[in-house]
Design a protein that fits this description.
The complex is a heterodimer of chains A (about 300) and B (about 300). With about 300 residues, chain A is mainly alpha-helical. Chain A contains 12 helices and no strands. In chain A, helix 2 packs across helix 12 and helix 7 crosses helix 9. The chains are: A mainly alpha (about 300), B alpha/beta (about 300). The interface between A and B is medium-sized, with 21 and 25 residues.
């Protein structure tokens, strides 16, 4: 038997030496990890389960078809659901083209040696971390400057939410563009394509799955957002279907906020039911984003 | 078809069924063309005192070369000797690298391609490039070939014919004619590289630059690309960078040997041309000691 095998044997038989994965230190750390994960998961689980139990009785057709009312039994979230759809669609139309265009400029065309572009980049990163209520204030100030009296407009809410998610879309799009291999750009340029053609016909199409994933995640954030819209007069009693960009509106998160503040127990049940709806919609959006990421993203 | 196809070449171009293993060539696939080669090449492109710098770093210096019609010119030398850098400066692909600067003259038909008023897009259209790693676009086989003609605004009377012609010239037509609409990623590495060559041919360049086109391929696929180069020489001027000296010996009419000199003080390695001559001369009777050492494997 060689020396090497001798050593290996003695090593593997030696269980008294507490080293590696089984040392007390490692075990404590492992337990700590489990505990923290357990705490995080339990809080979330309790929240979801209690919301479901509380809201289940009112999770019926009336929630979707009825208008808000002072009688809880006849109240529903129909205008809030429609309002959310209006606001989010408008936000998507405003923010996605703008965000993608900004990202393309920064990633593909901007001269990266210039100080101004570094500054812009730093700014975009910082903007993504700014509290949403600040964007509400910004939109409010803009509307005041424009002398708009009634600020409860779909287009105003969508503008605030667009500003909020613009940095997120820019960052996601840049990531997606960066993951397109340089070889593809080089091949296109070597054939005599212009940089603009290369961007439109090769880089951008290859980045679409990544951009779509980022955009949907950003929109789902805007969907659940209430703070900026509260500042813009979103907390109103809307008893009609919003029907245009200049229409008044309320959204699902604001409706939930509204109902939670009411004294009657029935309204709180209603709020829980609307929360379930919001939760399901958000989960669906995030699931769609994950699906797109997994099924359409190219592995180079 | 201007030049003299040797009988060997035509037999090699007899289309072999895709799955039948082809013999590997270690010997030149054609009898030496030395007697047919003029002493000085009939210039299509030329370098006069070319220096390429990246910022302050001088990557390659003082290159004087002439690339002839219907000739394959190989650039060989140890890593870091600037041969790929030089190749990329021949069709202004170095423009895409920040800080890259070319001084001296690179001419196409006597016209300096770095002169003021010259459009790099037009330069790249007339001087095609095949890259080290096969880099087909994430599109169908057909669209890969049709992309170039489309973006440069060629108006072929029949795009299908153009695609077929390019694929036939690249010796790929019989293998892919039944799956033109399928993704190019479904092809083998060697087929992908021939597709990249077909794509380059489709825009009808005058010169084809190849940057180690076979380094990612197995010997059989390499053999096919080499046969293809023999065929393409009759229409195009080809410049190939290769690490494989046998490959240079097999395919090239003329060979340029580069080496790198470390600058005193900084230790930056700057590439320079040592010797440029007919391939047989370089490999059998080089006039420079360094070439001889490299060829015989004593350094590099």
């Amino acid at each position: 038997m060689s020396i090497a095998t001798d050593l290996r044997l003695s090593r593997s038989l030696d269980t008294s030496a507490r080293s590696g994965e089984r040392s007390p230190k490692a075990m404590v750390f492992l337990v700590l990890l489990w505990v923290t994960m357990f705490i995080a998961m339990t809080v979330l689980l309790v929240l979801i389960v209690t919301t479901f139990i509380e809201g289940a009785p009112r999770l019926d057709l009336r929630l979707f078809t009825e208008y808000p009312s002072s009688t809880p039994a006849r109240a529903g979230a129909r205008p809030a659901i429609l309002g959310s759809i209006w606001v989010i669609c408008t936000t998507a139309v405003l923010a996605i083209p703008l965000g993608v265009a900004a990202a393309v400029q920064l990633e593909e065309f901007a001269d990266k040696t210039k100080r101004i572009n570094h500054l812009i980049e730093l700014n975009v990163q910082n903007l993504a971390a700014i509290p949403s209520v600040v964007y509400g204030l910004l939109a409010l100030a803009m509307l005041t400057l424009l002398r708009v009296q009634n600020k409860n407009l779909v287009i105003a809410g969508a503008t605030a939410l667009s500003l909020l998610i613009l940095p997120v879309i820019i960052i996601a799009t840049r990531e997606a563009l960066r993951s397109v291999p340089a070889e593809i750009r080089e091949a296109s340029l070597a054939l005599g394509a212009t940089p603009l053609q290369t961007m439109w016909k090769q880089t951008l199409p290859s980045a679409v799955p990544g951009i779509a994933t980022g955009a949907i995640l950003a929109l789902s954030r805007a969907f659940g957002e209430a703070a900026p819209l509260l500042l813009l007069g979103g907390l109103v009693f809307v008893s009609y279907d919003p029907n245009g960009l200049l229409s008044g509106y309320t959204t699902l998160p604001i409706q939930i906020f509204n109902w939670t503040g009411r004294p009657q127990e029935e309204f709180r049940v209603l709020a829980a039911a609307a929360s379930i709806l919001l939760l399901v919609l958000l989960l669906a959006m995030n699931a769609l984003a994950i699906y797109i990421r997994n099924h359409y993203q190219r592995r180079w | 078809m201007s030049a003299q196809p040797s009988p060997e070449v035509t037999t090699h171009q007899e289309v072999t069924p895709p799955h039948e293993p082809q013999e590997v060539h270690f010997e030149p696939a054609h009898p030496t063309r030395d007697d047919q080669l003029p002493d000085t090449p009939d210039a299509v492109m030329a370098c006069k005192n070319v220096d390429v710098r990246y910022g302050d770093f001088r990557a390659v210096t003082g290159v004087n070369l002439i690339f002839g019609y219907n000739e394959i010119t190989a650039l060989i030398g140890p890593s870091g000797c600037g041969k790929s850098t030089l190749l990329r400066s021949l069709n202004r692909m170095n423009d895409l690298i920040l800080g890259a600067r070319v001084t001296g003259e690179v001419t196409l038909h006597g016209q300096d391609i770095y002169a003021r008023g010259i459009d790099p897009i037009e330069v790249r259209r007339r001087i095609g490039m095949v890259f080290q790693k096969p880099n087909p676009f994430p599109k169908s086989i057909y669209d890969n070939v049709a992309y170039g003609p489309r973006v440069i605004g060629m108006k072929p009377s029949n795009m299908d014919d153009l695609v077929e012609e390019a694929l036939t010239q690249a010796a790929l037509w019989t293998e892919v004619k039944d799956k033109l609409k399928q993704s190019a990623f479904g092809l083998s590495g060697g087929q992908q590289q021939r597709l990249c060559i077909a794509r380059t041919i489709a825009v009808r360049p005058e010169v084809i630059l190849m940057d180690e086109p076979c380094s990612a391929l197995d010997p059989i696929a390499t053999g096919r690309i080499e046969d293809l180069m023999e065929e393409l020489r009759q229409v195009y001027a080809i410049v190939i960078v290769t690490h494989n000296m046998q490959q240079a010996a097999r395919v090239a009419d003329r060979t340029a040997f580069f080496t790198a000199l470390a600058a005193e003080g900084t230790g930056d390695r700057t590439g320079m041309l040592v010797e440029y001559d007919k391939t047989t001369k370089i490999f059998e009777n080089p006039s420079d000691k360094r070439t001889e050492d490299y060829i015989s494997g004593r350094f590099g």
